[in-house]
Amino acid sequence: MARVTVEDCVTKIPNRFDLLMIAAQRARNISSGAELTLDRDNDKNPVVALREIADETVDFSELEDGIVTGLQRYVEVEEPEEDEMDLMQAIHHDVEEDELEAQTDIEEEDEIKEDVLTVHDVAAEEVDAAFEDAEILQEGGELEES
Question: Are 54 and 8 in contact (CB under 8 A)?
Answer without folding.
Answer: yes
